[in-house]
């Protein structure tokens, strides 16, 4: 999905081994539709060549204030005027100090001080350099000046030490840039989302689950966080990475998901039930593995119904605005409308067509008091953004229309 279509980003590299990560970041940004103009300090060119970044960005790379390719010889003005944002990755100790004190002694630092667009800085350095009071003072000064400081991450470092100072992974920097540009439809709202399947154990090695991958719920959590919400994602067993800026709580069973959802939903503004919750669980979970019998008689299980999480949250006296999903094999419009009334929720999203478990695309229709809104078939990331926009307009007291 072209999440950054039309965006022009100046990507500035300063000296540090994390320069190698910026090759991947450049790729992610250009794949998402952004125009990426790379500018490098002299030190950065010691770690990765301008040729590599030119090939990945598809544009000439600038390294010098005195580059004769710029007709008026003012690259510090020309390059920054076109930009929607400048991203410095990796940002070295020295470059952070320069920014904090307003030095302008090479192209990149001059570009930053001459900018009329937001500046995002992604630090990368040894843990002692990051913890040094001078660096902390400089980073705080940047924050106070309205610069976004992304990271750093903690973990093993190229120097062999372990601690704070690693550059965020390229995917995390990419997500933070997408989030930075996203319209803030849910600014200041608290959102709780359930996602994925549940797993209902039968014995220590077996259980009942379903084919839900969690992709739609995770995409909605990401879109809500990008829109400025404080998001709690209650996830059944999935193989997905936690979206940028989302707080995740992993659960296994429907009962655990129910308890976690009720604990978080009081006082929240919005609850979205995306999880494919198992309707039943076995009444008595065996503590030992159930063995085959000598005569081949299969085991018989007694089932009990699981709690309906969405209906329980919808019943809360100070409950959030509730959104449910409906997977119906037939007569979607009638069944979804009936389910909306039965679960007592203001808005229900129906999956159009056969189950889309595990796929990257989906087609949905929205059922609410205004009738039916059909969205075009799209990838789940695009759909999630459209759904969050639609839902934000329906929240009580919404300023969006
Ligand atoms: N849901 C829930 N807790 C359950 C079952 C469903 O929170 N125990 C939520 C789902 O997350 C979804 C909505 O209710 O948002 C509808 O789920 P669905 O499986 O379509 O409906 P059911 O209530 O299970 O009814 P049925 O299977 O009979 O259609």
Task: Pick out its properties.
13 helices, eight-stranded mixed β-sheet, Rossmann fold, binds cytidine-5'-triphosphate
How are the SSEs ordered, and which strands pair?
Layout (H helix, E strand, L loop, with lengths): L7 E6 L5 H13 L3 E6 L9 H8 L17 H7 L3 E7 L1 H9 L5 H7 L5 E5 L3 H5 L1 H12 L3 E2 L3 E4 L5 E5 L3 H12 L8 E6 L4 E4 L2 E3 L6 H12 L3 E6 L10 E5 L3 H12 L4 E4 L6 E3 L20 E3 L3 H6 L6 E7 L4 H11 L4 E5 L9 E2 L1 E5 L2 E4 L3 E2 H15 L7
Parallel strand pairs: 1-2, 1-3, 3-4, 4-5, 8-11, 8-13, 11-12, 13-16, 16-17
Antiparallel strand pairs: 6-7, 9-10, 14-15, 17-19, 18-21, 19-20
Explain this structure:
It is a single chain. The chain is an alpha/beta fold and 401 residues long. The protein folds into two domains: 174 residues, Rossmann fold; 205 residues, 3-Layer(aba) Sandwich (Rossmann fold). The strands form six sheets. Strands 12-11-8-13-16-17-19-20 form an eight-stranded mixed sheet, with helices on both faces. A five-stranded parallel sheet has the order 2-1-3-4-5, with helices on both faces. The longest helix is centred in the last third of the chain and has 15 residues. It is elongated and about 80 Å long. The protein starts with 7 loop residues before the first strand and ends in a 7-residue tail after the last helix. Bound molecules: cytidine-5'-triphosphate.
């Amino acid at each position: 999905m072209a999440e950054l279509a039309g965006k022009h980003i100046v990507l500035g590299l300063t000296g540090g081994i994390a320069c190698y990560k910026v090759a991947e970041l450049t790729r992610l940004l250009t794949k998402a539709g952004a125009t990426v103009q790379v500018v490098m300090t002299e030190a950065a060119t010691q770690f990765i060549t301008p040729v590599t970044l030119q090939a990945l960005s598809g544009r000439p790379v600038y390294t010098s204030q005195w580059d004769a390719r710029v007709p008026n010889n003012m690259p510090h003005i020309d390059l920054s005027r076109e930009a929607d944002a400048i991203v410095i990755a990796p940002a070295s100790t020295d470059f952070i100090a320069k920014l904090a004190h307003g030095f302008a002694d090479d192209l990149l630092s001059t570009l930053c001080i001459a900018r009329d667009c937001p500046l995002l800085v992604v630090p990368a350095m040894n843990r002692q350099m990051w913890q040094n009071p001078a660096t902390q003072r400089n980073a705080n000064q940047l924050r106070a000046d309205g610069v976004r400081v992304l990271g750093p991450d903690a973990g093993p470092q190229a120097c062999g030490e372990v601690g704070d100072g690693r550059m965020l992974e390229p995917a995390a920097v990419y997500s933070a840039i997408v989030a930075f540009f996203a319209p803030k439809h849910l600014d200041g709202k608290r959102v709780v989302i359930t996602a994925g399947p549940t797993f209902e154990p039968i014995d220590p090695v077996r259980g009942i689950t379903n084919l839900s991958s969690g992709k739609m719920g995770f995409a909605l959590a990401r879109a809500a966080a990008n829109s400025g919400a404080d998001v709690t994602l209650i996830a059944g067993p999935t193989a997905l990475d936690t979206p940028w800026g989302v707080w995740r709580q992993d659960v296994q069973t429907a009962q655990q998901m129910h308890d976690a959802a009720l604990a978080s939903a009081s006082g929240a503004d919005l609850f979205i039930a995306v999880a494919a919750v198992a309707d039943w669980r076995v009444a008595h979970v065996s503590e030992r593995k159930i063995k085959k019998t000598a005569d081949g008689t299969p085991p018989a299980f007694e089932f009990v119904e699981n709690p309906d999480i969405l209906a329980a949250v919808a019943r809360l006296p100070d409950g959030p605005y509730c959104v449910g999903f409906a997977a119906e094999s037939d007569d979607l419009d009638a069944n979804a409308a009936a389910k909306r009334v039965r679960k007592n929720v203001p808005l229900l999203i129906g999956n159009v067509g056969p189950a889309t478990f595990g796929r990257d695309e989906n087609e949905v229709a929205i059922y609410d008091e205004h009738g039916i809104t059909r969205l075009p078939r799209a990838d789940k990331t695009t759909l999630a953004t459209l759904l969050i926009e639609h839902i934000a307009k329906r929240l009580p007291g919404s300023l969006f229309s």
